[in-house]
Specification:
124 residues, mainly alpha, two-stranded antiparallel sheet, 5 helices
Amino acid sequence: MRIGELAQHTGVSERSLRYYEEQGLVVAERTPGGHRDYPEWAVDRVIHIQELYAAGLSSKKIAQLLPCMRDVDGGANEFATPELVDELAAERDRITRTITDLMRSREVLDEVLERASERFRVAD
């Protein structure tokens, strides 16, 4: 499939797809005319890349991880190593801390909103 089709199927810009290719995260063959031609499994790969970026992983970490993932379901394959599992556990812990911090921030905002709302209700 051409780059535009892959962008449409994944919701990722063509620019981002070219960046992914530069980083070695996704590979495209070239047609005789020089156009990128992606395999069908690239859709799953790009979706997994987006999920990993959303989790806060860097492109370097994603490049280490992708060879250890199956593209169809994102599960581990035979190339996963104990070191990679440890690194991913550390990333998961970092994400958990971030979620906890965000929840605390939301609680503070909830309190401010509640107090501000009470003040306006009293003024009525």
